[in-house]
Amino acid sequence: MKSGKLFVTGLFVFLMMGSTVSAQLRFGLRGEVGINKPSFTKNLYSVENMNDFKVGPTIEFMLPVVDFGIEGSVLYSNKKMNVKKVSDKTTVEDISSHSIDIPVNLKYKIGLISPVKVFLAAGPYANFRLSGDDFKYADFKDNVEAKKFEAGINLGAGLEVIRRVAVGFNYRMKLTDDYSVDEPDFKDVFNQKAGFWSVTAALYF
Is the whole-model pTM more than 0.85? Predict the structure, then answer.
């Protein structure tokens, strides 16, 4: 009789723990839009209006009670920029690149006035290029080639409201070059290491 009660009690506790843990695992949809548009000029050429848009599924797992966990996403990324000759303002190349972006962040939440929480996130990302436009200018076409892989670090912060919606800012630092460049004069133009700011939003189901 006692063993039966212990079994039922243990099963109840196990189910309660399982429901608590599963409640901390969430799936959702995440989007990200670049908000800074850096411009770089070197000798006869300039690169302007570099921007990035991302969207895709995301998953979050938070440890119960402590509000500390991990999140990961698989995002389609569309990067764009304008390349033009300084002496020729009318001829502009619109270059677009398509890739898969995979950020993995450690995440910490701080409760404010219910139902609002502040979150902090940091972690690495990897970007795998799928396709993109080719350069038409002869100088770029012969000396600049887009790389297939990019990596770096993400730092983010924002607000989570009613456990469903999270909005914030993200700062991205590249640790690799975007392009393989034969001409030293073009290296800084295409492989600038300035960080990128973006607005992020996630909707959890």
Answer: no
Highest-pLDDT range among 79-83, 87-91, 138-142: 79-83
Tens-digit pLDDT profile for residues 170-185: 998 888 776 666 555 5
Q: DSSP character for 187?
A: H
Contacts of the segment 107-115: beta carbons below 8 A, 24+ positions apart: 107/60, 107/62, 107/68, 107/69, 107/70, 107/71, 108/67, 108/68, 109/62, 109/67, 109/68, 109/160, 110/67, 111/67, 115/161, 115/162, 115/163
Cα torsion at 8, 9, 10, 13 (round to 10°)?
A: 120
Which amino acid type is present at position 185?
D
Question: Which ranges in the chain belong to alpha helices (H)?
Answer: 2-23, 138-143, 184-190
